[in-house]
């Protein structure tokens, strides 16, 4: 009896313990589930913020390298090169402008110019680190590595040259490649060797409009030299003023500029004035060679006299203020000159109609003159019959005019030997 009661009591206690343990287990499971839910819900709320931070990091990275590539490419200078190339393309088109080919030409020119500017900074990274004007560039400041910059220059240079070769012609691509080599591997080292680098750099600046003309027409003629000649002569006073204003900085950077050996500044001013005067005949040549109308001749002459006056003012008073004034005058000259070329350019249709009109007038006048000559015979004192004829005038070729003013290396006019 006692044993049976003990077993009943034991069984009852075990049932009570099991129920309590089950309730505690259920409570623990509920607590664990709630804790898991509470711990997992913040993670679900943080996922959009993590995605936003990652997108922000990506945008900052793109912005960083975009700024570095823009500074390595010297974006504003490269855009000026593109503007001169585009102007040359429009002038070389003759009539209607092919906008698609113009776009490819400008894009290819931009890429090649960006490559040349990047290689220039790669070679001059130590000099740029010393100069105040350039020590914040991407390479001296360490924002980008030299191998990265070389890779950027190589890729855009090759792509730009290939684009010009496939979408325009091989002549334009050859001019672009040669200008890239001339700027990066000739002009850039010369800046630390000899002051002649300014004139070599002027040749580099004169090639892009020739490139544009070649891309449009497929060849190079004498008429295509108007804008390149203007760019060549314009760059001399432009860079002479810049070199005079920054000669302390250039001396600290180890560059051999013309103004550094000229302590008084007189030779620098003379060179700037002489090349400004060389710009004067270009407006007349553009009109005489049929590139523009007569209005451009007048406008170009007035514009050139203005920059020549600024150069003469610098020659008389060689101060930084006058040099800065000449520098600003040169900045205004080039866009106005190119705009005048585009506004007053003569198309092939206009020249053809003018030639036909002149030919009709000349043919009718020659018929009248020949009939009048045949009907009017004159006699000399001895009574011999004498017929007066008109001696035709030979038209002077553009080479004859070119020999007279800014291109002394061309053949002399035929009239000198007559």
From TrEMBL:
Please state what the protein is called: Heme O synthase
Subcellular location per the Swiss-Prot or TrEMBL entry: Membrane
* Matches recorded under Gene3D superfamilies: UbiA prenyltransferase
Recorded hits in NCBIfam families, A to Z, give:
cyoE_ctaB (TIGR01473)
Specify the protein's topology with respect to the membrane.
Multi-pass membrane protein
GO molecular-function annotation terms?
protoheme IX farnesyltransferase activity
Compositional bias annotation for Low complexity: 366-375
Q: Does the keyword Flavoprotein apply?
A: no
According to its UniProt record, where is this protein mainly located?
membrane
Instruction: Mention any Pfam family matching this sequence.
Output: UbiA
Ranges for the region named Disordered are 366-396
Claim: Transmembrane is one of the keywords in the record = yes
Under InterPro entries, the record lists: Protohaem_IX_farnesylTrfase, UbiA_prenyltransferase, UbiA_sf
Q: Tell me, what is an example of a GO biological process annotation in this record?
A: heme A biosynthetic process
> Keywords, A to Z?
Heme biosynthesis, Membrane, Transferase, Transmembrane, Transmembrane helix
Any one GO cellular component localisation term in the record: mitochondrion
Instruction: List all membrane-crossing ranges.
Output: 77-96, 102-123, 144-164, 170-187, 199-216, 222-246, 267-287, 293-315, 327-344
